[in-house]
Amino acid sequence: MTLTAFLAVALLHLMAAISPGPAVLMAARTGVTEGMRTGAFLAMGIGAGAVVWASAALFGLALVFQAAPALLWTLKIVGGLYLIHMAWRMWVEADTPLDMSQDARPPRSALSAFRLGLMTQLSNPKPAVLFSAIFIGTVPQGTPFWVIAALLVVVFLNEAIWNTLVARVFSFERSKTAYISLKTIIDRCFGGLLALLGLKIAAT
Fold first, then answer.
1. What is the average per-residue pLDDT within 178-195?
2. Helix-strand-coil split of the chain, %, nearest 5
C-alpha cells in the first residue's frame, strides 16, 4: 500500500466522520448536557465502534453481507430501532427542566459514556459498507499487518478527535445557556433528527 493510498483512505474517512450522522448528533447533545469530559469518553466509544466496522470491512464482512443480504437487513432494522428508541427518550424527556444545581444528577460515568458512543456507532452498519468501498483498491492483498493497524488507529483518531471537538464546542457556557432556554425545542429537534436517521438506516 502506497503512502498516497494511505493518506487518501485517511482523508476519505475523515470526511465521512465529519458528515452529520447519529454519532455527531450524540456528541453534540452530550457536550451541551453533560460537558466536555463525558463527551470525550463518548467520542472514544464512537471511535472504537468505527474500528469495529473498519476491521469487519478489512476482514470481509461486506462479502458476508453480499452472500446473506438478510443479515445486513436485520442489522439495519435493529440499529434503526435502537436509534429510534433513543430519539423517543429525548422526545418524552424534552419537557423535563435541566437541573444545574449542586444536587443535580452528575454526568454519566466514563464507562457509561464510552458504552453509549460505542452502541451509537454500532447501531449503524452502513460504515462497514463505506469502509469496504474505501478499502477496495487501496488496501491490496498482502498488506503488512502494521499498515492495517496504522489504518485502524487513523480511523479511531478521526472519529474520536472530531467528535470530541463537537462535544467541546457544545460544552461552552454560551451553548449551555442557549440550550437551557430552548431545551424543549432543541431536545425535540435532536430526537426528531435521530429518529429520521434511524428510519433512514432501517429503510435504505
1. 74
2. 80, 0, 20
Output the pTM of the full model.
0.73
Contact (Cβ atoms closer than 8 angstroms) between residue 91 and residue 190:
no
Domain boundaries defined on the chain:
23-203
Higher-scoring residue by pLDDT: 160, 96: 160
CB distance 51 to 156 below 8 Å: yes
Q: CA dihedral defined by 175, 115, 44, 91, rounded to 10 degrees?
A: -30
In terms of C-beta density within 10 A (0-12 exposed, 13-18 middle, 19 or more buried), how is residue 118 classed?
A: buried
The amino acid present at 127, given as its one-letter code, is P
Which residues touch 161 (CB under 8 Å, ≥6 apart)? Answer: 43
pLDDT digits (tens, 9 = 90+) for 16-26: 788 777 888 88
User: In the structure, what pLDDT confidence band is assigned to residue 168 with cuts at 50, 70 and 90?
Assistant: very high
Residue 65, pLDDT score: 59
Give the CA distances from residue 89 to residues 63, 83, 101, 102, in Å, rounded to whole numbers and listed in that order: 35, 10, 23, 24
Angle of the 173-181 helix axis to the 183-203 helix axis, nearest 10 = 90
What pLDDT is stored for residue 106 in this prediction? 61
Look at 50 and 91; give whichever has higher pLDDT: 50
